[in-house]
Predict the structure of Histidinol-phosphate aminotransferase.
Amino acid sequence: MKFNKNLENLTNYEAGKPIELVVREYGIKPQDVIKLASNENPFGTSPLVAKRITELATNAHLYPDDSYFELKDALANKFNVSSKNIIIGAGSDQILEYCLHAKANENSAVLMAGVTFAMYEIYAKQVGANVIKTNSQTHDLAEFRKIYDTHKDRISVIFLCVPNNPLGECLDASEVYEFIRYVKDETLVVIDAAYNEFAKFKDAKKGIEPEFIVQNFKNAIYTGTFSKAYGLGGMRVGYGIASQEIINELGKLRAPFNITTLSLAAAITALSDNEFVQNGIKSNFEQMVRYEEFAKFHGLEYIKSYTNFIILKFNEQNASQIVQNLLKKGIILRDMKSYGLNAIRITIGTAVQNDRVLAELDEILK
């Protein structure tokens, strides 16, 4: 059977191993498994959200309000924009996909950092676009500009992951705004802000403001998610904020009822519990210090992170083997081999989870 030629050189996205797989393969009890591989919220979701989901469980047979009015209104109030500037997706990934389908094709190119979220490249290749990556692994905007100047007639979409997944580094908001002004209006700049709540908490200069994007740029979109700081990874709710022109065009790609009734209610409720979100972020950076100190003690390089995860780089040790050894003990971390790095990405867990992970890592490195 013949398939679309754009699929020929595509590989599947490699997600973190699920708890169920570790239970089956190694015979470990589910309660003894620690999963810190997919940047999920270790505190779960807000108790208010859990209560609301339970209350609406009997409505699972009903489609949601496809206008998503209440969620858009809540996001509009939070970010001081109009609800007409917002589109809702099944995770922010879906908004990223819309952007590629709306702007890129086999005659265009997509620009991104050397190491960044893998789905940018996958979505770009799905529409036949050429992928251009910087030589620098992180976001070197001088290199972005140089590449853009060379290929500006072809580059239709530029991805800026702020902060960057999977490395954790983060541009200042002023740098992002200056770069958007540099590119021409026909080039769509996608600001993937999935971890922006974390970056803004750690350093105010890193916080991207959707209101500023809408008011000042016709060629940029801010994408956010409920999967990280809000603890709704399993509910799959994301959003895009941009000019009405961009939102209207992306809306043509959106299928009806693209998030569920329970997901919609969960997201609306999650926005009302800011205390839960802020407490989780505060704990995240308090616990991250422990990994930084661990790395320094063992002479490991790490990337200063503005997210809910940290990268530990290894020289003499094989990171893939370390990940495999920990997996057998019920600890799931992310091997960075697929990104060409001898490194491990660790989601920052609870204090108890981090106790165990650091103890096991310490034993291995000894």
Q: What stands out?
A: Residues 48 and 269 are 7 Å apart (CA to CA). The two ends are 53 Å apart (CA to CA).
